[in-house]
Amino acid sequence: MNADSRKGELADLKAQLRQLAGSRQPGVEDIKRELYKKVISYMTIGIDVSSLFSEMVMCSATSDLVLKKMCYLYVGNYARGHPDLALLTINFLQKDCHDDDPMIRGLALRSLCSLRVKNLVEYLIGPLRSGLKDANGYVRTVAAMGVLKLYHIAPSQCTDNEFPAMLRALLLNDPDAQVVANCLCALQEIYTAEVNVSPETAARDREHLLSKPVIYSLLNRIKDFTEWAQCLVLDMVSKYVPSDSDESFDMMNILEDRLQHTNSAVVLAAIKVFLHLTISMADIHQQVYERIKAPLLTLVNSGSAEQTYAVLSHLHLLVLRAPVLFSNDYKHFYCRYSDPTYVKKLKLEMLTAVANETNTYEIVTELSEYAANVDVAIARESIRAVGKIALQQYDVNAIVDRLLQFLEMEKDYVTAETLVLVKDLLRKYPQWSHDCIAVVGSVSSKTVTEPKAKSALVWMLGEYAYDMPDAPYILEGFIENWIEEDSAQVRLELLTAVTKIFFKRPPESIKMLGAALSAGLADAHQDVHDRALLYYRLLQQGVEVAERVVNPAKQAVSVFADTQSSEIKDRIFDEFNSLSVVYQQPSYMFLDKEVRGPIELTEDSGILPLGPTIADDVLPSQLVDATDNDLLLSASDKEESVAAVSNGSHYSGPDLAGFESSSAPPRSTSSPSSTSQVTSTSAAAATSLLDFEDLLGLNTYEVSTPALFSLKLKTKPSLVAQAFQRKWGQLAVALTLVRFVY
Known about the structure:
ARM-like, Clathrin/coatomer_adapt-like_N, mainly alpha, single chain, AP_beta, Clathrin/coatomer adaptor adaptin-like N-terminal domain-containing protein
């Protein structure tokens, strides 16, 4: 419809409405109804029909309820934007507020309160007062919400006319449950808004609202309320503090049947009340967990996927607080083929949380099946879940075997996730290094493309160079492709791994170390450049000093840090039955703009990240560990231990002057019995190599070093690089490897 035809159409409607105004001929009501329908349809699709305001009001003098509803809808839509025209509606709305039909009285009062024009507030006082005293429950229901609308328009006039006091009286005495619910909703919103105006008055009013007579009155009538009203009442009851334990038991007895309600919102609201009432009674609180378990599990297996996710989120919070109570119900958290991905991910977290000594085998067996899932995201999450269970020290032997079997599946994403988890397992269980390294050594480095997996593989090559004969040559391939490597994380790990191998097998790695340091110093990434420069200067101080910094004796990581602190979990628990549980964040993290920061859409999922979040592919075992002795792992590959969090200490760099060669601790990860001899021999060989060859081959590269540890190069070395290569080629063959390529 173009502009000219639209104007013509509106002019025709205006003329027809004006002609029908005041007419009492037979069939006029039907014609009006058709015209009203056309006006409302235009208004619905966004066409401005405010020019018909006067004619619509003139035609409102009718007893047809349908016509009045459409007229009220039209008036409510345009009154706020055209306050001068809204004055035309006052007379007929006030007249309808005294109509004999309670439906018309209620509709007229609702429309009158919906005008939202401040200049017309004086016309609302009388009809509202009459509506609150009306004999019909529907009119009182509308009037209760009208008081709230009046408060938003003119708070002072609302309180001066004592409308909140009238709502409090209806809250306790009105026989209609819906009126009571609307009064409660209006009072709660009024008192919340009143905090900014008069905090003392608002606190006193809220205290009256949470008094024992009001709470007991609502609880005794809770079955009469609608589901929405029940949730409102239960939310208020959860804020009530009973005087003694007997009162708590009485309230729980009243609400016992609410746990069997078919509506999940009512069940969760009732559970919140039960948890709140027993939070200070440990034994009873545990019994409450047992009691609410069955209703929650029933809701999980019924209803829509969205409802299942919301209930699972709350159940997950309870499982984290009391995993033992849910350990026998782990089969309820098995994934179904019809579950959407977001539900499957949450169920995997639940399986990880309830795992213990008795059910680990069954859970890991189920998770292993998911590793072959066509959904790559679920396959990754299932492998991570297996690793998390292994880090909890449950049936480690069987889990390690399962993880090593994943490497034989020859799927890139499975291999990538497994390598990351094997690295974490070796950090906690170094005694498994022989079995793990034997399988990891068979993995082709060319098939590993993800940065985290590459970093894990490189770390294992550097850490267990004694057990992997081809370790220097595999790393040499990475060094040759330094420029093509996009991930700074991998380049950082390469520098550390190559330096470690130099301390263990110097003849095979001296040239590779020089190439790595040279490439690192020329790297455009600041962290890579700084680490290469650090290693170069450490080597100038002496090989033994450098080894004690780069490759110290390490202790097994005992406990991996959780991604959430206990304080955050307690805050989320206090906000039970809210979005905080679904988001797994306290409300201030996604409501406070200063904490939340700008909202942006993520590239992969398109959902809104709320507050500070941890990436999906970051495991708890990949956070910073402040007490870990492997000081040169990249920050994204380390974990915070619980001990480090508790003592709050900060790492301070090693005192190089305090190192004594005679007090070097034994290596904890060495597998052969002669490791100490090999280490000393390697250090001596590395020292002799550094005596005759500049590590980088850059004589013009100047580095300022303390005079005490200055590196002096021989002007006439006894052995040049070419001679070394020739002598190396003259040695007898100690081992021959034959590889078959299929």
